[in-house]
């Protein structure tokens, strides 16, 4: 893991919400180049809200978001996307009446080099062989696990530098989740930075390098994932141990 002094992404004193409802309060965190970072917490902790802010979908009320030390808060979602910050949203949000391959190509909609797109499409099919088998099938007719694979593969077609994955395991069988975690590890091995947002704390901490724990809109713990996984307070609060 690269531990260079300047993080890829840094959030400082960030607050945000919806109307009069303040969801995030004084969030400070950093994402380092080529690491696997987890952001964990229970349902309603504010995890998805933070991803919406980082993606440019929701404005912050205070604080800074720095990409390579350059402020990016206030940028449009398209400008954020152009930086290489790509999100796999909760619920996949595929185009259900389009084929799998057309969904994947939608991830490359900002790219113009057709040869590079074809190359990356073949690479994605190698990484997700099930998608190659299903390439002509309507995306909405696949199983939940296959749809999650499709959403991740589509994000890869955008050539992300930071891949943010929201609630990947939701509603999926454990064997499928294990396969998806293996895929994330392989993506990270290619040099892509991973930010996994998860309710399943054990899953996320078992796969990540570092982690932040979010409770009611605030960061309450942070550190090496393996260390947090053994933390007695965290075990009592989230793992029922």
Which features characterize this protein?
single chain; 241 residues; alpha/beta; 2 domains; six-stranded mixed beta sheet; 10 helices
Description of the structure:
The chain has 2 domains: 9-84 and 160-239, P-loop containing nucleotide triphosphate hydrolases (Rossmann fold, 3-Layer(aba) Sandwich); 99-158, no CATH class. The chain starts with 8 loop residues before the first strand and ends with a helix. The protein has helices spanning 47-54, 77-82, 100-106, 114-127, 129-133, 144-156, 174-189, 201-207, 225-229, 232-239; strands at 9-18, 21-31, 36-40, 62-67, 70-71, 85-88, 162-166, 193-198, 210-215, 218-224. It is an alpha/beta fold. The chain has 10 helices and 10 strands. The mean pLDDT is 93. Helices cover 37% and strands 26% of the residues. A hairpin with a 2-residue loop joins strand 4 (62-67) and strand 5 (70-71). The strands form 2 sheets. It has a 6-stranded mixed β-sheet with strand order 6-7-8-3-9-10, with helices on both faces. Strands 2-1-4-5 form a 4-stranded antiparallel β-sheet, with helices on one face. Helix 3 (100-106) packs parallel to helix 6 (144-156).
Structural class: alpha/beta
Briefly note the CATH topology name of the largest domain.
Rossmann fold
- Strand-residue proportion: 25-35%
Arrangement of strands in the largest sheet? 6-7-8-3-9-10
What does the radius of gyration come to? 18 Å
The pLDDT mean sits at: 93
Largest β-sheet summary? 6 strands, mixed
Q: What is the overall shape?
A: globular
DSSP, total strands: 10
Number of helical segments?
10
